[in-house]
Amino acid sequence: MALSSKIIGVGSFVPEKVFTNHDLEKMMNTSDEWIQQRTGIVERRWVDKNVGTSDLAVKASEEAIANAGLDKSDVDMIIFATLSPDHDFPGSGCFLQAKLGIPEIPALDIRQQCTGFIYAMSIADKFIKSGSHKNILVVGAEVHSKGLDRTPEGRNVGVLFGDGAGAVIMSATEVSDAKTEGHFIDAHLHADGSYAKELWLPGPGTGFDSENRFDAAMFEEGLHYPQMNGKVVFVHAVKRMIESLTNLCKEQGVTIDDIDLFLFHQANLRINSKIAEVMNIPEEKVFNTIQKYGNTTAATIPLGMHDAVKAGKLKPGMLVASAAFGSGFTWASALYRF
Ligand code: ACO
Questions:
Q1: Which atom from ligand 1 is nearest to the alpha carbon of 267?
Q2: Which residues are catalytic?
Q3: pTM, rounded to two decimals
Q4: Using CA atoms, how far apart are residues 326 and 228, in angstroms rounded to an integer?
Q5: Atom 15 (ligand 1): residue with closest C-alpha?
Q6: Tens digits of per-residue pLDDT, 76-134?
Q7: What pLDDT shows up at residue 97?
Q8: At residue 75, what are phi and psi to the nearest 5 degrees?
Q9: Which DSSP letter does residue 196 get?
Q10: Nearest CA to ligand 1 atom 3
Q11: Which residue's CA is the closest to the ligand 1 atom numbered 12?
Q12: Could you give all domains of the chain from N- to C-terminal order, each with its CATH number?
């Protein structure tokens, strides 16, 4: 018997309001055809003005806790992955903790962007394997819409991102048969900060040659909106997700045939198709959600996980592979038996 961690409950939440590509045609100089051809996105959800990131996270978390068959008071740690926190500080994990009404347990925010959820699961797994914690709430949530330039100038990034939240409960478990029993097997985590400015949000920040974190010029230049070199991101995403997952599978003695479901990050449908083609993954084993949510960054993998459960595509005992790539650059892969 070995102490391990296991996903015992999944939840998700997306805002009610749907924005189709046709809705975006009215805001930006774009077209449904361009967006679908280049990205696969058909629609995305954006919040109302009175909703923040931890509000989405609360709903996803409550569902994950209920689906795990736990009470809120059983949760002994929160790990919150987001690049769009409610406020610069404190972290959204603290806001979520207060909204859930579970004071005093640790609340850790992590900032690994689209790779955030895999980093978060890996951190939770290590805390559980150390024996210090038993039931960790791992959340990925984003409100991108409030940070996007939704005018004609912002079309290159503005059409890509959606809002949403997903959460899982990772719980301590004793595993006697690793080939059949649900548990988190392992993750490989990576970063290369030399590419930080290929996909980033420059302002506000202390990185400017200025006495202040923000000034009028920063807003005039639009440096408070995300900047992206889409082509560079695309090429590195395909290369790194394949490399990381291939190495992890090799290390674990797992083949593509052994894996029942692939839950990849959803930045672009063409990225995932390319990965499936290169790795010889049958299309029906890749669960994509970008068509209806766009890129929801740290929320993407748990949101997809919950949709896969609801669609009957992800069942207990299945071997799942995840891989993600995002700003940083950061990238990661994970193998877990559900
Ligand atoms: N609608 C219509 N036209 C557009 C739009 C739009 N929304 N955006 C850009 N264009 C135009 C450009 O202006 C350009 O026009 P031009 O040829 O007259 O100059 C043309 O379309 C082609 O633009 P490119 O940027 O070269 O388009 P590309 O084929 O590279 O596709 C895309 C862009 C979809 C962004 C692609 O590069 C991509 O998906 N990259 C990966 C992005 C990604 O993964 N980002 C998120 C990372 S996740 C994270 O960590 C947050």
A1: 44
A2: 114, 265, 295
A3: 0.97
A4: 11
A5: 156
A6: 999 999 999 999 999 999 999 999 999 999 999 999 999 999 999 999 999 999 999 99
A7: 98
A8: -70, 130
A9: G
A10: 30
A11: 156
A12: 2-175 (3.40.47.10), 183-337 (3.40.47.10)
